[in-house]
Amino acid sequence: MNRITQLFNIQYPIVQAGMIWCSGWKLASAVSNAGGLGLIGSGSMNPEILTIHIKKCKQATNNPFGVNIPLIYPYTEDFVRIVIEENVKIVFTSAGNPAKWTSLIKEKGITVVHVVANTKSAKKCEEVGVDAIVAEGFEAGGHNGKEETTTMVLIPMIRKIVSLPLIAAGGIGTGSGMLAAIALGADGVQIGSRFVASLESSAHQNFKNKIIEAKDGDTQLTLKKIMPVRLIKNKFFYDVEQKQNNGASIQELSDLLGSGRARKGMFEGDEKEGEMEIGQISGIINEIKPAVQIVKEIVEEFNQTSKSIAGLQI
Amino acid sequence: MNRITQLFNIQYPIVQAGMIWCSGWKLASAVSNAGGLGLIGSGSMNPEILTIHIKKCKQATNNPFGVNIPLIYPYTEDFVRIVIEENVKIVFTSAGNPAKWTSLIKEKGITVVHVVANTKSAKKCEEVGVDAIVAEGFEAGGHNGKEETTTMVLIPMIRKIVSLPLIAAGGIGTGSGMLAAIALGADGVQIGSRFVASLESSAHQNFKNKIIEAKDGDTQLTLKKIMPVRLIKNKFFYDVEQKQNNGASIQELSDLLGSGRARKGMFEGDEKEGEMEIGQISGIINEIKPAVQIVKEIVEEFNQTSKSIAGLQI
What we know:
Two copies of one chain form a homodimer. Chain A is an alpha/beta fold. Helices cover 42% and strands 15% of the residues of chain A. The first copy, chain A, is built from 14 helices and eleven strands. In chain A, the strands form two sheets. Chain A has an eight-stranded parallel β-sheet. In chain A, helix 2 (25-33) runs parallel beside helix 3 (47-60), helix 3 (47-60) packs parallel to helix 4 (76-85) and helix 8 (175-183) crosses helix 14 (291-308). The longest helix of chain A is centred in the last third of the chain and has 18 residues, at 291-308. At the A-B interface, helix 7, helix 8 and helix 14 of A face helix 7, helix 8 and helix 14 of B.
């Protein structure tokens, strides 16, 4: 159908975001089997675990799937070696500079997509030869750009300066949101939060419940002095905010954050002390469903909305 | 064409935001003459000045125009009296509770629209009988909601719970942005920043130049402890940020803000010490044009984008 489905050899230009603690082989293979592109989120894995997830994903689907590799983690080099060894065909890189890794990964015949949140990084992507860009807006869950540019603004901004296939992310969880992204100039979408609230996601049930309960204003970008991240406003979030309001240093905030906060929140379900990363679109997610059903609903709503405004002229 | 054009009796469902220091009778009448709905922004006026602007606007256009009245200013009562006396047919209220004023204004046969940034206020609007809602996202310039919900998320969220005609605002400055808003469930759009960068806007030339120079990341929401406002990052902005990072109290921030900061920035053109309120979409605005040209370009791009994706199915 378009540049994104051709690039990945998939049915629908719908990518499931590679998210820490939520998207292992079960979710990735379910989305790929449903006609989208599933991604294994390696950011919360070690090399051994990632290898297991890739092997299981291959067994669970014959369709293309990919691995998301954050470029700022200690395991980056191992992960790149593993995806090459395991013959993974698609890699999404994020949170770092694609200059170092893109050519190395592409040499092995792997399709490389990099996630950006600003125009400068988008231009960099084109220079270093990535195959497509994910442009992620401020409303997205998890780590986020310092510019705070929203999807509504970021997509046309990047479309204007880069000719690469463009995947919109942040604030998209429905078919009408997907159509809006296409109208803004995207070729496809990456969806995170809605897939966290799937049966196959490895998010803890408590975290899934938090997502379907969330309303507008229940998430916020915080920890901007360290690395901006969008979280559900739970006790941990308010502890962070209080420290920040009192002028805490980076060191004090890092101490509060400690290690294992994300695991505690998203994987172990500690609603008070854990970090729960989710996007604003959680405010319109009300039900936990199988991933295949989520993909189906997005496609149907896209097609219906597209029909209902077909060729509208003012 | 739709509920918005019918409600206001205008040609295109494009509303020019009623903005302090920028949208007097010249801009409002130019937009109304171009087939959109022009709004006089009363928030920076006194009763005498507002009366003059309304009278001049009536002389400059035979088309419908409106007045934006912030509901938290000392002149609210005077302004309501003036729009009634001057037989203004359309009033947009913002920044306050519509419960007190809506029925009073509607009794006089005036169409009332209220600006909201969250679902709670949207429901309130429906309860108190406003005729339409503007839902304004985080990316918008000027004062903004505490929830920080972006347009991409806010529009479907409000569309879901309210059946009133819905005008999307925040991050919209082009025809493709307008089409995206319609896909998300809006009936029309309100555009601010792009009209500030018009020949007819009363913004100081220095402010207009700042807008066309702005890139992504050049605006930010600040002063969240007092009332969130999106500003261009100039010296004044960084002074505020520094104070906030050091844990300044509301009183200290209010003292720094002082009075006349917005006038100094937007109307007098003080690029260093003035407050310059503008939206993120300034990053893709590159030229100062007549308002009629802006409306024409938005309409043409809307129609072209709509044609190019007409009936797209995946």
